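sry for the spam today, last one i promise. struct tokens for design, 259 residues
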């Protein structure tokens, strides 16, 4: 079936109370589709919101497989996750109504609020995915769960320092496109802080203060002058992460890096 017929069938089944069957049709359709950068189905968001757990179970594995199908070679000297070419630059732009990628994001965030432990069991096998877009999507999902998954999110962040720089947010100011690096990580830290005890908060603070955005090997290769030149950039990247740490746990280094 073509996309319009699939969308019509899926909408009809959802309205008839057959959301799980409709999701199965969506999965079959997206797996057979080419040109994933613009994969749209009319009112797909309504299906994701009607059955978020079922939507995630079916569509998250496909999304991860797609992300891995074409990976950008890592040529950066920064310590970051490889990027998928298969998803497109605006793969999760919030204005793309009917976009399957955006519907998956909605389903993940709805499931995280509705049944956080069930959702975590579904996403846990994908936490180690070596793809930036997957990591940022999972960080946003954990942020949606907030304190309910604070312990799991704390472990997620501390397990790999690259996660402190994950998830870019893009916007426009006049004719200029602006990018905020590490947006997802900052939102995740802010969301889980209320659910962490003092010991977890201290370990999170210390992990942020250790994070430079460079691997140990890359940092060791810089000259003394190159390291000094990069220190202000590192402090600037850490500052938004440190803002959510409670004031009584802030150190002199935290205050200096926050300006």
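last one done:
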């Amino acid at each position: 079936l073509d996309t319009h017929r699939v969308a019509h069938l899926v909408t009809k089944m959802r309205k008839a109370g057959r959301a799980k069957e409709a999701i199965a049709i969506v999965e079959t359709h997206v797996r057979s589709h080419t040109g994933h950068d613009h994969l749209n189905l009319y009112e797909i968001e309504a299906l994701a919101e009607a059955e978020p757990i079922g939507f995630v179970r079916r569509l998250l594995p496909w999304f991860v497989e797609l992300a891995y199908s074409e990976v950008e070679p890592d040529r950066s000297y920064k310590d970051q996750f490889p990027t998928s070419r298969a998803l497109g630059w605006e793969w999760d732009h919030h204005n793309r109504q009917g976009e399957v990628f955006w519907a998956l994001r909605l389903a993940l965030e709805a499931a995280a609020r509705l049944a956080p432990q069930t959702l975590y069991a579904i996403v846990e096998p994908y936490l180690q995915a070596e793809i930036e877009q997957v990591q940022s999507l999972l960080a946003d999902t954990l942020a949606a769960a907030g304190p309910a998954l604070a312990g799991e999110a704390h472990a997620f962040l501390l397990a790999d320092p690259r996660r402190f720089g994950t998830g870019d947010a893009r916007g426009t100011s006049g004719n200029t496109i602006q990018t905020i690096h590490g947006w997802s990580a900052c939102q995740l830290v802010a969301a889980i802080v209320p659910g962490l005890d003092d010991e977890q908060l201290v370990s999170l603070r210390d992990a942020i203060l250790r994070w430079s955005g460079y691997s140990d090997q890359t940092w060791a290769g810089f000259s003394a002058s190159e390291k000094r030149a990069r220190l202000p950039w590192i402090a600037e990247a850490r500052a938004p992460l440190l803002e959510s740490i409670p004031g009584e746990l802030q150190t002199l280094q935290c205050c200096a890096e926050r300006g």
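The chain has a mean pLDDT of 89. ok im logging off now
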